[in-house]
Amino acid sequence: MKSLILPVLPIPNVVFFPNTELPIFLVDQVYVRMIKECVREGMLVAISLAEPIQNSFFPTPKFRPKKVCSYGKPIILEELADGTIKVLIKGVGRVQLETVIQNLPYLVYEGIPYPDLPEQELLGSNTLTKLQKLLESWTRESIPDSLERESFMKSLTTLNHMVDYISMFLIQDREVRQVLLETTSIFERIQMLKSLFHEELPLFEDIQAATAIKSYESIEKIARGWH
After folding, report:
1. Which CATH class, in words, describes the domain spanning 4-113?
2. Where are the domains of the chain?
3. Among the four 23, 81, 99, 177, which has the fewest Cβ within 10 Å?
4. pLDDT tens digits, residue range 51-70?
């Protein structure tokens, strides 16, 4: 499996999914430079959930990127007078970060692709309808413009699009979002979403189900020796 060399942007509370597009504002000039260099050189960039490092030696909070994250193509939408840029990251795939290639001025990692496993299961029409209704309910709350809502829904051409957008925007708990990202079976991800949204068109996931999913994943990682 061919390795990937990717600049990494760790962001607290953001779990980026591969079949989505993520708009972000960047103020930190280190990351503004990173994005501009990636655009100029045609490089992809990884967006990873920033994980706090528990260490009393650090006077200010420090973060490291989660091992499994998504990467995509950066597009600069707007550059403001104060140097802030608005960027759209168009998802391409998932990666497991392995080795640090560069620390300064920004992180660059070597990683390996982290694809879904091949599966033969078929999805029932009721489940597909519920996923669509979940997204439609969310868009009515989050996208005021009716034309933008319609355009967004039309852009969801695959099951992966729907599952990834629900996982990224409807799940409030970042740890559960990360569990969904790391799960390599789309049908397992759908089962998790069904357990989280078992009520009719809820706006928030079931807290007990979220806790159970995190606990199970923690046990699984210990069993695999992945800390």
Report:
1. mainly beta
2. 4-113, 125-221
3. 81
4. 887 765 655 557 889 999 99
